[in-house]
Design a protein that fits this description.
Strand order of the largest sheet: 3-2-1-4-5-7-6
Order of helices and strands: HHEHEEHEHEHEE
Shape: globular
Structural class: alpha/beta
């Protein structure tokens, strides 16, 4: 059941963003400097496109690659945006991203289609997050940053432990723009 629009939904609409999730990225960026000095950004699971919009607006010179199997139709047009309609689990996509990378930042607000079964939904979310991490391993620049959404109640602690073993700095964060009853959280890692 979809919740009623809240002040984040209204703000997103007023500011021309496609979704309220933009304010999650805005907070992560403000608190952790996620996009600071980013000249290339990969947005995995980008539809409907509000995170991509935010990157294009705050880093207008950055090269942005947005990937999703759903279509992404941004109200703004820009020459430095590449949209790839593909599945992030595709081996061909990984190879293509390796060719066009590296990226200073890898972002993912991707979520699985939910079933209502919390355990199954958490497992699917963890699978998505693990694939994002695998792509980041092959495409992230030497001093790159990663932000990926994952549902709580599954493997988020294990994935955070894995990030801490591979990155000098890693942490979990739940932005204020997340709905109160939401099980989503974000894992951040910095090289």
């Amino acid at each position: 059941m979809r919740e009623k629009p809240d002040h984040y939904t209204e703000r997103a609409k007023q500011q021309g963003y496609l979704a309220r999730s933009v304010f999650k990225l805005e907070e992560l960026d403000r608190r952790f400097g996620l996009l600071k000095d980013a000249s290339s950004v990969l947005d995995l699971g980008a539809a409907p496109g509000s995170w991509t919009q935010y990157v294009l607006r705050t880093q207008p010179a950055a090269r942005v690659v947005a990937v999703d199997f759903a279509s992404i139709k941004l109200p703004e047009e820009t020459a430095n945006l590449t949209v790839l309609n593909d599945d992030i689990f595709s081996p061909e996509l990984l190879e293509h991203l390796r060719e066009i990378g590296p990226f200073d930042v890898v972002l993912s607000d991707a979520a699985p289609s939910t079933t209502g079964n919390r355990g199954l939904d958490a497992a699917r979310s963890a699978s998505l997050a693990e694939m994002v991490l695998e792509i980041a391993r092959h495409t992230l620049a030497e001093r790159g940053k990663l932000a990926v959404k994952i549902f709580q109640g599954g493997d988020e602690r294990e994935l955070l432990k894995e990030l801490r073993s591979e990155f000098p700095s890693a942490r979990a964060c739940k932005p204020r723009a997340c709905r109160k009853d939401s099980v989503e959280t974000y894992l951040l890692a910095f090289r």
